[in-house]
Amino acid sequence: MKPSNVEGVDLPGRLAQAREAAGLSLADATRKLNFKHYQILSSIEKGTRNVSANELISMARLYGRALDYFFEAKVPSDPILLWRRTAGSDIRKEQQQFLVFLENYSRLENLLGLKRRWKEILTNLDREDFAENGFETSETLGTDIHRRLDLGSRPACNLLNILENTLRFKVIHFGLGDGLSGASIMDSALGVGILINANDAPWRRNFDLAHELFHIITWNIFSHEEIGDGSRKTKPEQYADSFAASLLLPKEHLLAALKEIAVNQELKLVDIIELAKEFGVSSEAILWRLVNLKKIKKSQVEKILADPEFRNLDRDLRRGLYAEQQPEKFPHRYVSLACRCLMEGKISRGVFAEYMEIDRSEIDDYLSAAGYAVKNYEKIAAA
Predict the structure, then answer these.
(1) What is the pLDDT of residue 381?
(2) pTM higher than 0.90, yes or no?
(3) Which of 31, 141, 165, 329 is the most core-located residue (most Cβ within 10 A)?
(4) Structural domain includes residue 75
(5) Is 382 a member of any domain?
(6) Which pairs from 240-243 meet CB under 8 Å and 24+ separation?
């Protein structure tokens, strides 16, 4: 297939655009596509070399694009994501991986005829509610969502499960590159997606999940320009932190735990760390929440956080938790849907292997380890 022979489409330019959007250099793509020399790929992108069907399929998979992307005269632009990152960090590769995951996940849901429920969590608040006292509104919203989702006394233990399985959010953990913390998206075709940095500590991941939940709930209230590119603490980003603290550290349950842990009503540094471990958040989050609840002074917190001995104690008391609570890359629900689709003949073994990022030869062992066997799909009754 000669790249320039696709009528009405600049296929060479489309191939180069897809590679760049995926954050891959010519050298990176050449290596991953198993071309002998980068000039082969360069020639394809310049339109001076034929591209075989197999090569095009490989490129589509590597760049996270459907084959239609390379042939349609007009391709819709990618959905807009909200990122948290340092200024100047490159999001292209991770963003494309995230979008591919969301597309795969959405296809599995559609094949099984599953309805999405994320609209149930959207708020009735508007801009005026945040105009006068946005922090108070954010905190109240966190309290309300805690109640509506029935998150219990230790919300961090339940939040991920409820978002994934009750509201059917698509949450994935990637080991993100330098300067990237996470992202979120709400899209009519893809649903709700949240990307969490798997390299972060468990307590950081919990807070980030709650932070991104705020952006989803208020998606239609703040413009992307107001929220920013994720490199600055804009007002909506600050509101998201206030919401997350209120959601994960509900006043009633936090004060009850504080009363139980403090001996003779005296609060020690070790108590702060134990509370943080119990609620699944950082010690810093606990301290600032107690400032907000007027249980400790701001000046005290600043002094504590500047003390290297406190940071060392915090690290020592949490040692081991990081390794114990490492997340799987793919959500359990995503794995379950993929296995179901394969067992019910809705996707091929090749597609299943692609979705799970395994070799075809590993499929049977994977299914067995996941508890999926043919006999489990025998009909026993009408549901």
Answers:
(1) 57
(2) no
(3) 141
(4) no
(5) no
(6) 240/138, 240/211, 240/212, 240/214, 240/215, 241/211, 242/135, 242/138, 242/139, 242/142, 243/138, 243/139, 243/141, 243/142, 243/145, 243/210, 243/211, 243/213, 243/214
